[in-house]
Amino acid sequence: MGRKWNNIKEKKASKDANTSRIYAKFGREIYVAAKQGEPNPESNQALRMVLERAKTYSVPKTIIDRAIEKAKGGAEENYDELRYEGFGPSGSMVIVDALTNNVNRTASDVRAAFGKNGGNMGVSGSVAYMFDATAVFGLEGKTADEVLELLMEADIDVRDVLEEEEAVIVYAEPDQFHSVQEALKEAGVTEFTVAELTMLAQNDVTLSEDDQEQFEKMIDAIEDLEDVQQVYHNVDLGE
């Protein structure tokens, strides 16, 4: 699977380091999760999952608390969860997840980001079948064999455990997210470099230098959109 998740996350975090964009996106996601269920991560699994992801991106506690308090206060902001699928240069594939309070605006913005950068938006289902929903965890301080053994002792059969760069990456089924996380925590893992649900391409593609430059420009344009939360693709960017 080798997607080098730590490097991908570090690149994204570095890109967002000088802006408040990533915090705003997490604030919105935390608010929606807290509003859809109890505003308490102990009883709201969706909220707990978002908070775990936020922790790996070092989202300030003030941002998290503000979003949860906003949900507790009965704010009437309502967001729709949307998924768009599309194509980039040389048949590259992209999935875009968004949270929006204006569906028409978001659809138009995403379509324009594709179209102005050498891509085009497809119909629902045109891309998603080439991706698998996957729970991904990254951790340091243990070997892949040690992690695999402790998961086996917890009677958890995951998809794969690999050593990538200086970290161990665990790939599991989406519904195993919490069981894997708890097993790792019970084994002494206190921090994760990655802890999230993602859409993992079944097969990566490598683009020419020109196509990759165009593709990265398109991805940047999509990620810059206010309503976009996550972008997944099947291109090996060589991180």
UniProtKB/TrEMBL annotation:
<dbReference type="InterPro" id="IPR026564">
    <property type="entry name" value="Transcrip_reg_TACO1-like_dom3"/>
</dbReference>
<keyword id="KW-0804">Transcription</keyword>
<dbReference type="InterPro" id="IPR049083">
    <property type="entry name" value="TACO1_YebC_N"/>
</dbReference>
<dbReference type="InterPro" id="IPR017856">
    <property type="entry name" value="Integrase-like_N"/>
</dbReference>
<dbReference type="Pfam" id="PF20772">
    <property type="entry name" value="TACO1_YebC_N"/>
</dbReference>
<dbReference type="InterPro" id="IPR048300">
    <property type="entry name" value="TACO1_YebC-like_2nd/3rd_dom"/>
</dbReference>
<keyword id="KW-0805">Transcription regulation</keyword>
<dbReference type="Pfam" id="PF01709">
    <property type="entry name" value="Transcrip_reg"/>
</dbReference>
<feature type="domain" description="TACO1/YebC-like second and third">
    <location>
        <begin position="79"/>
        <end position="235"/>
    </location>
</feature>
<feature type="domain" description="TACO1/YebC-like N-terminal">
    <location>
        <begin position="3"/>
        <end position="74"/>
    </location>
</feature>
<dbReference type="GO" id="GO:0003677">
    <property type="term" value="F:DNA binding"/>
</dbReference>
<dbReference type="InterPro" id="IPR002876">
    <property type="entry name" value="Transcrip_reg_TACO1-like"/>
</dbReference>
<dbReference type="GO" id="GO:0005829">
    <property type="term" value="C:cytosol"/>
</dbReference>
<protein>
    <recommendedName>
        <fullName>Probable transcriptional regulatory protein BA724_13335</fullName>
    </recommendedName>
</protein>
<dbReference type="GO" id="GO:0006355">
    <property type="term" value="P:regulation of DNA-templated transcription"/>
</dbReference>
<keyword id="KW-0963">Cytoplasm</keyword>
<dbReference type="InterPro" id="IPR026562">
    <property type="entry name" value="Transcrip_reg_TACO1_YeeN"/>
</dbReference>
<keyword id="KW-0238">DNA-binding</keyword>
<comment type="similarity">
    <text>Belongs to the TACO1 family. YeeN subfamily.</text>
</comment>
<dbReference type="InterPro" id="IPR029072">
    <property type="entry name" value="YebC-like"/>
</dbReference>
